[in-house]
Design a protein that fits this description.
mainly beta; eight-stranded parallel sheet
């Protein structure tokens, strides 16, 4: 069984008191399972420790409504560690505002799968911010969408490090709505891997890692590559477009095959105006 299961017309606020301390530990399935919620549902969970469960730490399937009536979930200041599968796995979160599915202040470490997995069996809109994602056996963050669905993601101010498969994996097409102030380093494989074009696929819009277009606190940083990895790798014959201007890399002048690798004839990859290098591993 899961430690906590929220289903149907679920409206719940958990851990909102100033002295709250929730714990979901050692359950046979998920630590917390938010499953098949209906339109108008809202889950607010804060300050919880979710550890050592037999499947996911937190499993989220928000189903129902769009726009104002959409089911929502806010997960804040959670520690999700040592779970057999993923730290947090999101199957669906109705398309609408970026506040439909918000993960803020997460610590996801030492999980058997990815730290955060936007699985995308249905539509997803999700924001991940102010989080530390480390030491997971899969990706730090894995992003996918299924056929005839859309995943929209926003990543801001996250530290993603020491994950075995890689830092961030864009393993299918999706829509990157925002990417700023992220540090991705010391991961196995590549720090960022891109295996498919963004939506809409025919238009091939660039993955925009340039944040605000300046070397300021919003710049994104990739460094401390694995022996076989690079900062950003684009794979697949489709040739995804990438805007990696105003980023910090291992090298002061980012070099192809060292800091980044491209493939496919149809994509462009720009690395103009690099910011100060990060030559040392933390």
């Amino acid at each position: 069984m899961s430690g906590l299961e929220l289903v149907a017309a679920a409206v719940a606020s958990l851990g909102i008191a100033s002295d709250a301390a929730l714990s979901f530990t050692g359950n046979g399935l998920d630590g917390v399972n938010i499953n098949a919620t209906t339109s108008g549902s809202g889950v607010d969970m804060r300050k919880a420790s979710i550890t050592g469960n037999g499947s996911d730490g937190v499993f989220v399937d928000l189903n129902g409504g769009t726009g104002v009536g959409a089911a929502t979930a806010s997960l804040a200041s959670l520690t999700v560690s040592g779970n057999t599968n993923h730290g947090i796995e999101v199957l669906r979160a109705p398309l609408g505002a970026s506040t439909v599915m918000v993960i803020d202040g997460l610590t996801a470490k030492s999980n058997g799968g990815s730290g955060v997995y936007l699985h995308g069996t249905g539509n997803i809109v999700a924001t991940l911010k102010n989080s530390k994602i480390s030491l997971n056996s899969g990706y730090g963050v894995r992003i996918e969408q299924a056929a005839a669905t859309t995943t929209q993601e926003n990543l801001q101010s996250n530290d993603i490090t020491q994950n075995t498969t890689g830092g961030i994996g864009f393993t299918t097409s999706s829509t990157l709505n925002g990417f700023a102030a992220n540090t991705i380093h010391n991961n196995g494989g590549d720090q960022i891997s891109i295996a498919a074009r963004q939506n809409p696929i025919a238009g091939n819009p660039p993955y925009n890692f340039s944040s605000a277009g300046a070397c300021d606190a919003n710049r994104n940083q990739v460094w401390c590559y694995s022996a076989s990895g690079v900062g950003i790798r684009v794979t697949g014959a489709a040739g995804s477009a990438v805007n990696a201007n105003f980023m910090s890399w291992l090298d002061a002048v980012p070099a192809v095959n060292t800091d980044y690798i491209t493939s496919g004839a149809a994509g462009t990859f720009t690395v103009a105006s690099p910011c100060a290098a990060q030559p040392s591993c933390p």
